[in-house]
Amino acid sequence: MIKNYRLLLFGFFLVVYTLAGFSLAYGLQIYHNDAIARTALGFFTIFGRDPHLGAIGFVWQPLPSLLQLPLLTLLRPLGFQMLAGPLIGAVFGAATVVSIFDISQLIDKKSHTKICVLIAALYGLNPMTVLYAALGSSETIFIGSLLFYSYFQLKWVLKKKQSDLVIASFFLALSFGSRYESVAAYLAGIFLVILIHVIRKNPFHKVESSLIQLCLPFLYVVGLWILANWAIMGNPFYFLNSPYSNPSFTNVVKENPAAMEFSYYSLIGSSMYAAKRVTLLAPGLFLLPVAYLSFRNGSPAKVKANLSVFISLLAPYLAIIGFHVYQLFKGESLGWLRFFSYSLVAATLLAIYLAKKQPRLIAIILLLLGLGLGSSAYAMSNSQFGKEENSFARKIANPSVELDYSRTYRDQKAVAKYMDRLPGRVILDTDAGFAIPLFATEPSRYIITSDIDFVEMVQDYHPNADWVIVPKPNADNIKKNIVFQHHPDIWSNTIHDLKLYTEVEGWGIFAVQK
Amino acid sequence: MIAAALLYFTDILFNLFLIYRSFAHAPEIKISPKKMALLPDSYWPSYTILCPLYKEWQVVPQFAKAISAMEYPKSKLQVLLLLEEDDALTIAKIKELKLPKFFKIVVVPHSLPKTKPKACNYGLKKVRGEYTVIYDAEDIPDPQQLKKAVLTFEKAGNKIACVQAKLNFYNPSQNLLTRLFTAEYSFWFELILPGLQSINAPIPLGGTSNHFRTQDLKQLKGWDSFNVTEDCDLGIRLAKLGFNTAIIDSITHEEANSSLLNWYFQRTRWIKGYIQTYFLHTRSDKKLHHRRIDLHVIFVQLIIGGKVLSMFINPFFWSLTLLYVIFREHLGSIIDSYFPTPILYISVFSLFIGNFLYIYYYSLACVKSGHDQLVKYTFLIPFYWLAISLAAIKAVIEFITNPHYWSKTKHGLHINPA
ipTM of the predicted structure? Predict the structure, then answer.
């Protein structure tokens, strides 16, 4: 008889995700932009020419890169630095599955334990969960932080111990370290705290103190982020309005309306776009009305208690989906399928709740969760829904296929290997080529964007560098690339001391004439 | 600079550890009221309450009322009001009051040093209770505290030589100072001391509500009459002799100092006493080494030394940060040269995370002690720290020039705030 389900779940999924991560990174050489960029940022912090913590970057949240620092230190000498992200993803992914089981135990320790293990395992085996844990994406770390938060917030709701709310507040703050969507979960948290105090008829000063304790760590982390942007980049909102920010990426899409298959600025269009993806990823959410009916009857105290648990479980994740619908409506989201993967968490928690409260529905619950595995796989392999995932699926199905994602990194790897043969210092704006130093044998000879003196080096390259490498100019990088900004004529080969040496996979390698 | 940065960083981690322990293990000893109710009056041993008083006759009626309200057989109680010979007014005023029979007046002959521990040592000779506790004259103890202390001694065994009740204030909302003072006391008694108890570290006792077996106290030869924080000193001495101190889940309410100047002088004395205790116990470490090897020495360094030193390090680093931001062009490179990269990261962590954590701890402590309404005031705690640092400067000067001077704190300001 198995006694420690937590250990079993953690061990099993850690192995599954690690093996999957290793296969993707080193077998198929599949990398995800979001994940590899964060590995690169962590890498520059330690192995760059100018190692400093600020190299972690100030556009994307730093937690995934920070978590990878110790692993990068260990894995780089072994040549396995690309495994740092997947390993962190595997740990967080496995911990997430355990958290789902822990939440079930918190609701009721005695009943249907094995069913809850199965529900947690079904979440862990969902192809969306497996793929993003194996890729080491920030979503996995984010969902992990949110589930730790959910666990302690639910514990606070059930056991009324303030220390649980405090721990929850720190996990909520931690979630901001990986993704901006945490703001939606934070607002949902405020709503929940007020609701719980209103239900308990507590005096105002109790509400006030709980809100301060919930909000303070989150707001402080946001404040630190803004301060860091201001102190290092000279612009407190660099993460929002720099050329590297998310809104600037969506602007590129907006300039090409044909690329959008959904309607920005239409509430119905955005909602429908989200609804389709949520339905495919999490058909279990169809049980929401059943859950409502399940706690509607009973004594007022019981209804309130059930309502508290129900809202506590679902509010953060439904709020994040609402946030993405709003972002779509505003035209500031690329609408990736992974943005709706929070519905999968909500459906799983709903299933846990119903398994405990309405055990006669267990068969339907398991059926819907099982169906979710298939429908998620369908969404991921369909280019209409899984724009990113579809390319991964095709590459997994046929490793010889060349796709944009793998091609990008194959090109950068080729550039890195070519540069390994050329001695001397290399100027590179890592905005486009962040993976090049990551693949390089000697990354410290690269003068990169995060170096404090990078702009000076670009301006005065002659005494400071031997090579300058830039991609072929296009509408996007011509504005962002700092080398292009200072030397717009570089590709015309008319700069007297900067001559094109060769081209490698679309990259120009320019030699500084000494 | 490196030593200061490392010490401050260690202090942050140590406090984080203590707070984690205080929440994770709830080390305060809880005694069930049911259990106490079942025991007959004959069960309870004799108890002596020592109450040293100096020029604070106004609060005596409140004290007499609080003690009379204690759920303890009055035939087993002996209350000794320790009055100073030269305080004729207090002696006269108290004699006018109709005090219960178990209250006795003890007049302490005039001599130097004129300190609370000296009065307590004098009173100790007249103690006839099996247990002894000290209360300040403005205290309002939990009515069940004596019973809880007796049962704690019985439960914890001979290893425990002292039971410390938690202290808090009955006038937290009088003004901003009392609010912040209450937050600080909550932090100390709700989070730090239980954390220290959980790791069997020496506990700097609070000045009141320390319960002892009289026999142990006499063996210890009472208090150090020359130390101006005799409570802290006694806590360390107990640890030296291998005894532990237990914290009980019982609160004594005191008067929070509501006058800034009065608070300043009180704080100066406390810090001076901590400095005295630190030097006293670090120059004669042999017994500490003998009993619990180096761990206890480290605790004394952190609890007493770290606490005092952080009062100086805090404003120093804040000033340095301010100078760096304002005069970066002129001073930046000089300041940079004192912070090698690892020390810089540690210092930045201490500045941004350490200071935040401390403010957050105060808010936790307010909630734990039931003072939810004070949580919003904890944002002002850095100003309170600044005031403590100013008191620390005076304390150092006084430690050199007038080490045994006891600056008497005025009590009863809550009765007549004007």
Answer: 0.84
